[in-house]
Amino acid sequence: AAEGGQRAMAVLACGEECAPPTWDTAGLHIGLGIGLWCMMLLLGYGLSIYTFANDAASLQAAAHIWRRKLHANIVYVLLYTSLVGAQFVQFCSRTITGTVSDIGLAIDLAACAFIVLELILGWLDTWLGNIMKGHVFVFTWGLVDCLLLPSVVFMALPAFGEQTWGSFAFLSALHLMQAWQWLFFSLRLSTQMLQWQVASLVGEAVMLLCFFAMFMLELEILGDPSAVRPLQEREWNTVAAIYFVFVSVATVGYGDLVPATFLGRVAAIVAFVGGIILLAVAVQRVAIVATEHGQGNGSFAPGIRTRAIIVSGNPTAAMVKDFVNEIFHPDHAEDAEDIQLIFLYPAGATEMEESMRLLRGKDMIDIAAKTLIFQGSVLESKDLERISAAKAVALYVLPNMRCENPYQEDAENIIRMIALRRILPTARLILLLLKAESRNILQDAGISISSMDGETTIIAVDQFKLELFGKSCEVLGFAPFICNLCKSVGDDDLIAGGPAWLKDYMQGVGNELYEIELSSVYADNRQAVFAEVVMDVLEQTAGYVYLVGLVEQSLRDGVRKILVNPGTQYRIKATTTGIKTFGIFIASDRDSVIQCEVNMVFLGRRARPANEVGPRQAASSTGKTLALPPMSSGEQVLLKMAGPVLTQRAKQLMSLSARHRHGRQPERPPLKTIASGGHILVLCVGTKSEKDLRLGAHHFVRPLRLGKSLAEMTPIVFMSPTPPRDWDMVCHHPKVYLLRGSPLSQLDLERSNFRAASMIFICNAASNPIGGRQAEGWMVDSEMICCSRLVESQLPVGARTLVVADLRDDRNHMFLPVPATSNTGSTVTAVQARTSFAKRFSFSSSSALFLSASEEDKPQDKRRVSFFSDASSLLEQEDEKKKVSRDEPYFRQPRFASGQLFVSAVITSLVANTFYSPSLSDLLRSMVAADMHTVPVPDQWAGKSYFEYFDHLLWAEERLAVCILRRADPARLGPGGAEVAPGAKGIKRRYAFVCTAPPAKETTLLATDLVICFGKDDPRRSDPRRA
Are strands 1010-1014 and 932-936 parallel, antiparallel or unpaired? Predict the structure, then answer.
């Protein structure tokens, strides 16, 4: 049996009786390879046609994930490297021995099996993802493998009556070079480190040299084919002459060919001298071009299908990295496949070199080729021509977030915007300002944004930030809800592991805001109202997609009207009215939005009991204005002499004078207000002098005063070393005070009674606190970090004070302290907890009964007391085994999930996503201006489906629920509903978080949940787009 097995194996391997390779066998192998390659190319076209007609995203994602997993698996990489390496070594050995052993052939076939696996996965990944990537793959690795595989397989079969040891196995050296890179990836070795970078380059160079050496040896063994043998009959021929000149100019000089004639030798001298000179000039020109590109002086010519986005201004390197990552995020893979980013820095920009260094990093290697950095000015037409600005689909103007003078930075960027608009009147332009006050420059220049041609979007950093956290003082959890809608988070960001709460939170973070035209079925066929459309979309998507508002655009003049929750009975306008209606959807991606179309069942439920439909009364809007003194007799005479026009102007001047006088002398907070506590404290850090301090405080105050009576208003105290120069913009609001002092001083903090404050917002108020270019990123947030640590170290454990930190660099979140946990020794009565929480977060009238009940009457409310008494800090220490790593991105941090952290990277994400959703900034500002409520879950709804409670709030109270503020450990209760001590044995302390647009039919309400809702849109509320 053993002898029979040996004879059977001998049939596959020729052993020592192998014939040498010839051009006949090589031609057969090449023909088979070209046939296999053509078949793979045709199948690729067929697969591309299939992807156009069907949704193959899941198949492409599976192929891509499998490739990534295999390349990251060290066992697979080592096995692959060993097999292809052994295949190459055996080829080298066969060139000496001329034999093929059974074991050697088995190794070759095993290596080919792995190569076939890589070929199939790579073919699927590229052709399913992008037809251009499919072509690149087929013409590179596809061609290599199609030549390699048939030649190895046919070593076991006789060709032309005999078996040969010849094959194209030397091509495995290229696979070995590829596996060398996988080895670094699987071992998590950074090629940015010098030793590993050298090892990577040396390994690639050695393998490439071995490939060319074996390729040349194979050709020498095969000899010249019959078609070129006549060229070798004479010593000098075309190929020999070219070979002689190249070898001589390269200063190698083998000496195998020598010109024998006089004229030939003269021509050789001219060729040598001229060739060396031309080679030196060519090398110099290449070096100059490379240097110019390195300094940003190159040029860019877009392809036929390329969409160019030009970014001018002076953005920081961190901002460039965030912007590039957001534009090319996997969630935008289909839309971004043909995008080319062009950054144009002004001359002398210090951030340009750092940006180029970051883009060369290992984590940016996949998208670095789609990003180019140049140096020039948008005011120079020649610079715009060399980057092909006329062909750009969008133009961005971004500021330096660490500049010393934000107003000068804004002024320069406004000039850039005006220059770009004049040269490219129809292009889409997005401008990011540091200060909303800088918009006045455009008005002073007589430029109206609405009258400019093209589409222009202007976003102000300070306005977005201050309005966002002003609203958060009223609605707990509003900040992470809005910030999560700005940033793209895909499946690659949903890393497995970590605390249990993180899974639910990250599912909400993956949702984004989309504006999509509503189906005509709703208005034309169903005459549906808003609530019916909301319920239909929720039903059609199994509870995963929420409709939160409408955008009505006039077909006549293009004017857009944004309505966030226009009301249960608001009827969708038909297309015949000249209004085009879009829906504002919260969904994981655009494709997940499903609407009722023709021949589909309408699932929006209309019939409701009469007692359930009862619209709420809109809140009255009151405010305090500066009262003018009664007109004197002289003013009365002036009225008679000057007339009403001049009198009106005089009144305006008097009003402005009064506001200016109050602005120069800010009102101090009364001692009684400070001592009573419950106020909102804004600590302004980073200020040096009065000259550079413009807070934009009216953006923070406005959401807290809109629609509130005087009794409902919470006192707001600003602490700053100097009075802000723009205090006149906020001094007319009631209960807004300024306390002069340093937020880094313990004495000044005590004067503000910060321990009794309901919320403390630590704001990076000034420009660059250090000045100039920063050596280390943490320095820009140094004062904010010190202030945060000082404040939170002084707060008692279990304090209800919410401390919010404002970071410029998102990497600095690791320096912030973890807020204190609940204090088991402190006693907080139910009435105190309810009153404080309701006062701060504006609970609705539906919870009035709950708020007025006594603690003894409702023992089950102790569960809510435990949440209210420490939910304002929202962070509790968790056991070390499941603690979230502070090295992870900021959006996965508990502090951000609870609304206690703001980072400037959110603004960058918002600006970048404006390219894909042009109205995103307007939608978010409308949400900030909308009426919002935080509603506790009543006892009768605890344990029921979120979908049922959503339906009840929508129809019975005209509230549109959008997210849940949930405590990750709501069941910390003992017998009889008593709260278990947080430090008790076996009890794990976890976090609270915001769950944005949770799956309605899969989410169960808990007794300690708080539901955040949009109230009915009030037309009397001011339009945020006019800000």
Answer: antiparallel
Q: How far apart are CA 382 and CA 94, in angstroms?
A: 61
Judge contact between 998 and 946, C-beta under 8 A.
yes
Indicate if the pLDDT at residue 706 is higher than 60.
yes
Model confidence pLDDT, tens digit, residues 3-16: 444 433 445 667 77
The span from the CA of 235 to the CA of 78, in Å, is 49
E strand segments, 44-194: none
pLDDT of amino acid 634: 52
Q: Which pLDDT tens digit goes with each residue over 940-970?
A: 998 899 999 999 999 888 899 999 988 765 4
Q: Which residues contact 324 (CB under 8 A, 6 or more apart)?
A: 341, 359, 364, 367, 371
Q: What angle do CA 217, 220, 224 make, to 5 degrees?
A: 150
Q: How far is CA 192 from CA 49, 355, 611, 734, 777, in A?
A: 41, 16, 68, 57, 20
In the numeric block, which tokens belong to residue 13?
């391997």
For residue 114, count other CB atoms closer than 10 A to its CB.
19
CA distance 949 to 391: 51
Beta strands (DSSP E) in 790-925 are 802-807, 901-903
What tokens appear for 185 in the block? 């990836």
Query: How many Cβ atoms sit within 10 Å of the Cβ of residue 513?
Result: 21
Q: Please check whether residue 587 is in contact with residue 512, taking contact to mean a CB–CB distance below 8 angstroms.
A: yes
Across the chain, mean pLDDT equals: 76
Q: Which of 587, 481, 584 is nearest to 963 (CA)?
A: 481
Task: Work out the number of other CB atoms within 10 angstroms of the CB of residue 921.
Answer: 22
Reported as a single tens digit per residue, the pLDDT across 834-858 is 344 344 444 333 333 333 333 333 3
The pair of structure tokens assigned to 23 is 């051009």
Across 940-1003, where does the E strand assignment appear? 960-967, 992-996
Other beta carbons within 10 Å of 430:
23
